[in-house]
From TrEMBL:
Name of the protein this chain belongs to: Uncharacterized protein
Species this protein is from: Lachnellula subtilissima
């Protein structure tokens, strides 16, 4: 594992896994998500994904790994670089779940200092199961933290050829 620092305060550093099988372009990240939150994104209720850490600027897409009961990647979303909530930053439009709370520094959003706008949502024509992630793409288990998608995953499942939802 390698540590990437992006200039954020020490408590915002994050560990990224680099796969030994194949290479990674660092443009595609895999993030775990609970099914209820994923459905809020799919339904357009949630327009930003909030994190406690900044993803590297190279990340253009997030492949969402749905936890129980699915245990598979079902969606990939194009994202914008992080919006922060520093003193001089522009506020988020309050058109989605959590945006107002992010802007208002609500106590439930403590340390969720990075917001990623969801630009497009694609549903995979065939979900990638946990077994396939392990066997075909070299993951040791379910993604617990952000990991880069190996290039052989993004090549064998081209995101732009999946079913575009928005």
């Amino acid at each position: 594992m390698h540590r990437f620092r992006d200039g954020a305060p020490e408590n915002h550093s994050v560990v990224f896994n680099i796969f030994s099988l194949g290479t990674s372009l660092m443009t595609d990240a895999i993030l775990g998500i609970q099914e209820a939150y994923m459905q809020q994104i799919v339904e357009g209720e949630k327009t930003y994904k909030f994190r406690k850490y900044r993803l590297p600027q190279t990340v253009e897409r997030v492949w969402f790994y749905s936890t129980a009961p699915h245990f598979q990647i079902q969606y990939v979303c194009q994202i914008e670089p992080a919006v922060t909530r520093n003193e001089n930053d522009t506020k988020l439009p309050e058109d989605g779940l959590g945006n107002k709370e992010f802007n208002d520094f609500h106590k439930d959003w403590d340390r969720y200092d990075f917001a990623y706008k969801i630009l497009t949502i694609y549903k995979l024509n065939e979900p990638i199961t946990l077994a396939a992630l392990k066997q075909d793409y070299g993951l040791g288990g379910a993604p617990q933290h952000v990991v880069y998608a190996p290039s052989h995953l993004t090549e064998s499942v081209p995101w732009h050829k999946q079913t575009k939802l928005s």
